[in-house]
Every structure is written in structure tokens, then in C-alpha cells.
């Protein structure tokens, strides 16, 4: 007799009369076990071992199967492996909104189309004027959307606070929050808010592409390098096409991001804005050895009164972004990083980035 089951815990004690072939499931904390009654035939054990490995490979190729079945657990108190327990909720380490995420291909098939989520604005090319206009439109649409979701009173209670601390060095709060996207639930908004030491001009310069090779490695340990392309201007706004490269993340492949970097004009209310918006352009096609990621990010800068104790200048910065480390756009081939892992860690990684940036601003020359 042979059973194959997936469970988050061993269904049998060590003294069980059943033989177990145990394989780790990819992207989960569950295990796949091939179970049979003990036998004197070693070949049958080897066959079951091979079956377990083969099944794990199948689940690696089709990870949604593991996601959809990982909550089915065998009743650990039963001596009969064919007796299944009740349906269990997803493990607590997986946020519920993302635990049952299906692949983009499945959702498109169910909807009767092959439509994939928007992952970068296509830039048609042509003359420099038309390209500049396309880049400008891409930036403005993202900027206005992020501004509305980050600051409008109707969205105030929709954000989920992931991390909120008081920085012991200056007594200022840092907050990392998440908001589900209305039409693309697999790629939420993330908002990072902090009071930074320095003037708006100093922080603006810190984010300038010209300084990335100096500043980014101290904020992002996976930063590999930056390649800048053509420069454009439209309605007084300067824009640069660029490609950022990231090192390998654990066992995952390297990532790269094609985007337009925009230095916006100050608003009438004194708020400055800048951003990087993902684009699809022949100037920076997908590169061999890299997974094309997606990252739209808009930064809002507001001048504050200096500190009362030492007169240090201060600025309030709000960074709103959406990130997909997989190549989920049209023509993409995925990337293997589950969204729940990103959602689970973005609070801590976002907080670490803000703290690192504050340290760098304080030690600037």
C-alpha cells in the first residue's frame, strides 16, 4: 500500500510501522511524504524515494499545487494514513491575502484571456519628442495615483501598519505600511514615512542617479550597478532612462529593473517629488542571466522646521512604491519568489533601508 500526502507536520510517530520517504516542498514549510508498509524489499524503498523526489520536482514546477493543498493535513492522532483531518487554514507565516495566490497564467485562463498585469509602461520610441512625452505621461499617471492613495483622507484607514518605531537617535517616528492594490492584488502599495536629517536639497541629491554607486550599496546590500541611457526633457522636467542590476538573492537569479528616473518641479504647496517608473523599452531589453523585475517608486519631500535643540534641518519624506521581483509582465517567465515572502519581509527591510539612509545623511561630507 502506498499513500502520498502533504502535511505541515509528521503524521506518524517515529515508531510507526510505516516507512517514510521525506522530501521538502519548495516555497513552503510543508513536507511531502511517501508512505508504505514496511517491507524486506529494499528496491521498493528506493522506488518510493525516487517517487518522493519526482513528486517534489512536480510541485516545484507547479508551485500553485502546493499552495492549494498545503492546508490539507493528516490527523496526527490517527493510525490510519488514509484518514484525513479537516481542512486547515494556511500557516500563520503566510499572510492570508497572498497564501492562496494562483499563478498569473491560471488567472488569465480562468478569465478567458492571456492578459497579464501591467509591469512597466511600454515606450514606443520614435523621435526624442514623442519618447519624452511618453515617459512624462508614464510618470505623471503613477505620481498622481500614488499621491492620491498615500495622502487622501478616504484611504487613511485602509493602510495596514507593518512597522512603526521611534528612532532612538533623534526621537522621530518611522512607519512602514501596506495597501492592497484595487486591480492588482498580487502587487500591493508600500509606504515608508520618516523625518530625515537635512534639507530637501540634500536628500534630493542623495537620491540622484549620479550618486547611486556611492549611496545605494549602503542601503541595498544586493545592489550591483547602474547603467544610464538617453536623457529627455518635457515641460521643464528632466528624465533619464536607466537600468539597475541586483545581485543574486540566496538561490534566486539576479534581478534587473528598466525605468525612467524623473526629477519633478516643486509644487505650489512646497512639496518636491521625484520618482523611478518602470518602462518597457528597446533601449533596455531583457538581459540574459537576469530576471526583469518591476518597481515603481515616488518620493514626496516636505520641509520641516529645524530641530529646537541643535537647529539641525529636517525634512519629511514619504516613499510610495510597488515592487514585483518576478517577471510577471507580458512575455515574462516568472522568477520563483513567492509574493508572501516579499510581503512578510518588506516591513523589516524597508525599516532597515530608512535607518541606513538616515545614518548616511548624518555622516555626509
Major sheet:
11 strands, mixed
| CATH topology-level fold name of the largest domain | Alpha-D-Glucose-1,6-Bisphosphate, Chain A, domain 4
Q: Could you give the order of the helices and strands?
A: EEEHHEEHHEHEEEHHEEEEEEEH
Helix content: 25-40%
CATH architect. name of the largest domain: 2-Layer Sandwich
Number of strands: 16
Q: What does the overall shape look like? A: globular
What's the helix and strand layout?
Blueprint: E1 2-7, E2 18-24, E3 31-37, H1 42-61, H2 63-69, E4 72-74, E5 84-87, H3 96-99, H4 104-110, E6 121-122, H5 128-151, E7 160-166, E8 173-179, E9 189-197, H6 200-207, H7 212-219, E10 223-234, E11 237-246, E12 254-263, E13 272-280, E14 290-292, E15 294-304, E16 314-324, H8 339-362
Parallel strand pairs: 6-13, 12-14
Antiparallel strand pairs: 1-3, 2-3, 4-5, 7-8, 8-9, 9-16, 10-11, 11-12, 12-13, 13-15, 15-16
InterPro entries: START-like_dom_sf
Biased composition (Basic and acidic residues): 112-121
Protein name: START domain-containing protein
What does this protein structure show overall?
The protein has 365 residues and is an alpha+beta fold. The chain has two domains: 2-92, no CATH class; 121-362, START domain (Alpha-D-Glucose-1,6-Bisphosphate, Chain A, domain 4, 2-Layer Sandwich). 28% of the residues lie in helices and 32% in strands. It has helices at 42-61, 63-69, 96-99, 104-110, 128-151, 200-207, 212-219, 339-362, and strands spanning 2-7, 18-24, 31-37, 72-74, 84-87, 121-122, 160-166, 173-179, 189-197, 223-234, 237-246, 254-263, 272-280, 290-292, 294-304, 314-324. Strands 6, 7, 8, 9, 10, 11, 12, 13, 14, 15 and 16 form an eleven-stranded mixed sheet that branches. It has a three-stranded antiparallel sheet with strand order 1-3-2, covered by helices on one side. The protein has a two-stranded antiparallel ribbon with strand order 4-5. Strand 12 and strand 13 form a beta hairpin. The longest helix is centred in the middle third of the chain and has 24 residues, at 128-151. The relative contact order is 0.13.
Amino acid at each position: 500500500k502506498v499513500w502520498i500526502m502533504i502535511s505541515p507536520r509528521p503524521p506518524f510517530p517515529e515508531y510507526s510501522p510505516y516507512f517514510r520517504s521525506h522530501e521538502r516542498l519548495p516555497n513552503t514549510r510543508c513536507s511531502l511524504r511517501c508512505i508504505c508498509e514496511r517491507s524486506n524489499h529494499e528496491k521498493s524503498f528506493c522506488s518510493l524515494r525516487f517517487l518522493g523526489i519526482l513528486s517534489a520536482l512536480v510541485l516545484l514546477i507547479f508551485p500553485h499545487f502546493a499552495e492549494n493543498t498545503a492546508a490539507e493535513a493528516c490527523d496526527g492522532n490517527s493510525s490510519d494514513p488514509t484518514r484525513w483531518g479537516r481542512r486547515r487554514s494556511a500557516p500563520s507565516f503566510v499572510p492570508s491575502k497572498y497564501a492562496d495566490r494562483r499563478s498569473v497564467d491560471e488567472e488569465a485562463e480562468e478569465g478567458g484571456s492571456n492578459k497579464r498585469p501591467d509591469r512597466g509602461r511600454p515606450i514606443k520610441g520614435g523621435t526624442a519628442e514623442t519618447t519624452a512625452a511618453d515617459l512624462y505621461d508614464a510618470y505623471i499617471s503613477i505620481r498622481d495615483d500614488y499621491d492620491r492613495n498615500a495622502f487622501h483622507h478616504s484611504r487613511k484607514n485602509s493602510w495596514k501598519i507593518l512597522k512603526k518605531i521611534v528612532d532612538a537617535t533623534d526621537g522621530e517616528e518611522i512607519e512602514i505600511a501596506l495597501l492592497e492594490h484595487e486591480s492588482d492584488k498580487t502587487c500591493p502599495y508600500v509606504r515608508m514615512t520618516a523625518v530625515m536629517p537635512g534639507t530637501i536639497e540634500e536628500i534630493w541629491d542623495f537620491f540622484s542617479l549620479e550618486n547611486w554607486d556611492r549611496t545605494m550599496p549602503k542601503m541595498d546590500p544586493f545592489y550591483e550597478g547602474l547603467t544610464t541611457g538617453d536623457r529627455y526633457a518635457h515641460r521643464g522636467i528632466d528624465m533619464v532612462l536607466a537600468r539597475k542590476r541586483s545581485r543574486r538573492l540566496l538561490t534566486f537569479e539576479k534581478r534587473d529593473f528598466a525605468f525612467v528616473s524623473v526629477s519633478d518641479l516643486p509644487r505650489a504647496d512646497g512639496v518636491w517629488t521625484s520618482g523611478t517608473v518602470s518602462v518597457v523599452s528597446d533601449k533596455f531589453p531583457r538581459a540574459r542571466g537576469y530576471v526583469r523585475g518591476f518597481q515603481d517608486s515616488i518620493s514626496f519631500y516636505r520641509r520641516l522646521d529645524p530641530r529646537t535643540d541643535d537647529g539641525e534641518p529636517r525634512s519629511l519624506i514619504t516613499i510610495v512604491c510597488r515592487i514585483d521581483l518576478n517577471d510577471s509582465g507580458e512575455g515574462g517567465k516568472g522568477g520563483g519568489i513567492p509574493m508572501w515572502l516579499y510581503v512578510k519581509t518588506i516591513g523589516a527591510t524597508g525599516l532597515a533601508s530608512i535607518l541606513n539612509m538616515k545614518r548616511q545623511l548624518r555622516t555626509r561630507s
